[in-house]
Write a structure and sequence with these properties.
By secondary structure, the chain is mostly helical. Helix 2 runs antiparallel to helix 3 and helix 3 packs antiparallel against helix 4.
Length: about 80
């Protein structure tokens, strides 16, 4: 898990990727592995409009929201 977290962080923090959708997904994955769900939501909320109909994205958004205590948003993600 540590290796995966390092690679996600390396891509997400790189100057060429940090403000892109894949870069934000990588940073969200980094914080997901670290179980820092408030930070996960910062990144997921910034790209949510692009993935509103994607089941995988909504599942991860729901899990992160529930883990951060944002149950209303978690429910929306799961629906």
């Amino acid at each position: 898990m540590r290796i995966a977290q390092n690679f996600f962080q390396m891509v997400g923090a790189s100057p060429s990727e940090c403000d892109t959708i894949p870069g934000r997904q990588c940073m969200a994955s980094t914080f997901f592995i670290l179980k820092q769900f408030d930070d996960v939501l910062v990144y997921l909320k910034s790209i949510r409009p692009y993935f509103i109909h994607e089941d995988d994205f909504n599942w991860n958004f729901g899990i992160a929201s529930a883990s951060a205590g944002e149950y209303k948003e978690a429910e929306e993600g799961f629906l």
